[in-house]
Amino acid sequence: MNDPCYTCRRRRIHCDQSGTPCAKCEKSGFECFQQRPLRWVKGVTLRSKFHDSVLRPSAQSKHMPAKLLAEAGDVQVATEELASINQYVPGLHQESSTTDVRTVDDTANSLVIASPRSLSDQAITHLDKTSRYYLDYYNDRICKLFIVQDSDSNPMRNLIPLALQDSVLMNAVLTLAARHHANTGYSFHQQDTSIILPVPVNANRDALSYKYKAIQGLTSSVEHATSIKHDTTLASIFLLIFLDLLESGSDRWNVHLEGAKSLITCNKSLFELPSSVAYGPGQTVQEIRDFISSQIYLIGILGGTFVRPKLLTQFSGLQQPELQPKDVVERSFLGCPVYLLDAIQNLSTQRDAIADSKNINDCDVRRQIQNITGVVESIESFDCYEWATALPRRQVPSQQEITNLCSLASSYKLGALIYGRRVLDARTGKESSQTELVCELIMAIGSLQNDDTLFKCILWPIFVAGLECQWKTQRQFLAQCLERFWRLTLCFNVINGAEILNTYWQEKDQQSQSSTPSSSQWIFNMGRLGQDWLLI
After folding, report:
1. CA distance 346 to 357
2. Is Magnesium included in the keywords of this UniProt record (predicted)?
3. Residue 356, C-beta contacts closer than 8 angstroms, at least 6 positions apart
């Protein structure tokens, strides 16, 4: 190959020009084009100025319905918002009652991403060809995306048998796949919808169609007491949280999260595995329940650091010792040690108390300072290497794998330390320097650049570093990290996160020229930017 391939040029990455296909296209699953492909879309070529543009996910997200309200165990879906999808996909209401998703004849012909390994289960024979493609896509790409390390027991993949028996969960699964596929048509810097990368134009419509049906199905499920305990209902809500990461990171994730918490809390018996079935047929379903509950715990804690104080409730469903999440990288979304999650939750509770405190007496202030200091010291004492070596594994890990897992834990430890010290600063009224910790955190982030599997798990530490860094070189490095994170995940929350950081840096620079900035205020101000962001 003499020139860089068209696909790499449109993705704005460096083509290795190793052959046809090039190594980067082959690894990422893209078809390697040498020239811009000529494709027909609704009667005109994609090169024509008359082709239909694809809707921008971040623009749609604020209109897409996904509201789940949870109060005293009552979970409802705001059905009146379902109609808003029709402004993007007219006519969906005419087909929403069918069990199988619609067939789009030209979708299969326009797919340009290499088809992932096929599911051979005879149970998928009732699905149309479009649904089969997206189910394969979910199996091959989505399951690896939202887990630290892929394995034969990947809990995201174990949802497929349940989805084959439940149309609501199936539509939630297909929504994730279609939205991720549609996001391949965007780049980190270029969001002009007049410039489209080589992806099927129907992927965006498919994502909206599946989401409409999933939301409508959830509406029916939560309105019937007999189905409120179904695992598929909880799993569907759970997947909608991940959908928000792909769409924007600021839509309805917190409402979905509260709805899932409510379901778990009201049905604790489902999450208590009797010893008589510890190794029986129900183990896989129980493992899925444990996985979902532990990831709800993780998302709630890390997500709670960048939202308004007291927006999220504490997860009472995991207060019993037997229900506490355990550290298993093959069964974790991000791999943050549970020990650190507990500490961060404690710090957020203290932050919320500070935000609420008005006429607090000196004795209470001293007690709170003592509590925060104790949590910070407990974080400092956490041994990342011991954690990495003690993780349960199916195979003996190499020294490099242990080193990288240690770096993963270190990134969360350092991020938690910075967060804790800023909470302490808010209580004492002082301004401590975090320069050394920020440098250590950036080094930990940099050490994971060659490990795609773990790098896709560290958006939260990257963002904490971004909120604290002061030097231009650090900001440039972290901006590159965010772009890399986008290429690995195609989650729109990172693009919005990058825009937030750029605005934040500009404001900090202006403040530094006029007066002494108060760095600790980001622990409160992040949730006051007009939206509650899920930056994990």
Report:
1. 17
2. no
3. 309, 310
Q: What is the CA radius of gyration of the chain?
A: 23
User: How far is it, in rounded angstroms, from Cα 355 to Cα 357?
Assistant: 6
Task: Give the pLDDT score at 189.
Answer: 83
According to the model, what pLDDT value does residue 484 have?
Answer: 97
How many Å apart are CA 55 and CA 273, to the nearest integer?
45
* Torsion sign over Cα 170, 173, 177, 180: positive
Say which DSSP state 314 is in: P
Q: What is the DSSP letter of 113?
A: B
Domain-wise residue ranges, the chain: 6-45, 57-266, 316-528
pLDDT at 514: 74
**SS3 category, 436:** helix
Q: Are 462 and 445 contacting, i.e. CB atoms less than 8 angstroms apart?
A: yes
Helices (H), 304-337: none
Q: What is the dihedral of CA 462, 464, 469, 472, to 10 degrees?
A: 40
Q: How far apart are CA 180 and CA 489, in angstroms?
A: 8
Give me 125's structure tokens. 């024979």
> Which residue blocks in 304-398 are alpha helix, DSSP H?
338-356, 362-380, 384-390
**C-alpha–C-alpha distance, residues 233 and 223, integer Å:** 11
Measured distance CA(482)–CA(188) in Å, rounded: 9
How many other CB atoms are found less than 10 A from the CB of residue 9?
Answer: 14
Spell out a b/e string for 348-368, using b for 16 or more CB atoms within 10 Å of the CB, else e: bbbbbbbeeeeeeeeeeeeeb
Residue positions counted in the chain: 536
Going from the first residue of the chain to its last (536 residues), give the mean pLDDT of each consecutive group of 10, the final group possibly shorter. 78 80 74 60 34 37 34 36 42 41 35 41 80 94 95 91 92 97 86 53 89 90 63 92 92 86 76 47 73 93 91 68 68 94 96 85 92 98 96 86 97 98 94 95 97 97 96 97 96 94 89 68 76 88
Residue 30's SS3 state is strand
Q: Can you tell me which residue has the tokens 């949730």? A: 527
CA-closest candidate to residue 215, choices 45, 82, 57: 82
**Element holding 237 (H helix, E strand):** helix 231-247
Distances from the Cα of 413 to the Cα of 329, 364, 425, 453, 461, angstroms: 16, 28, 18, 19, 9
- Phi, then psi, of 156 in degrees rounded to 5: -65, -35
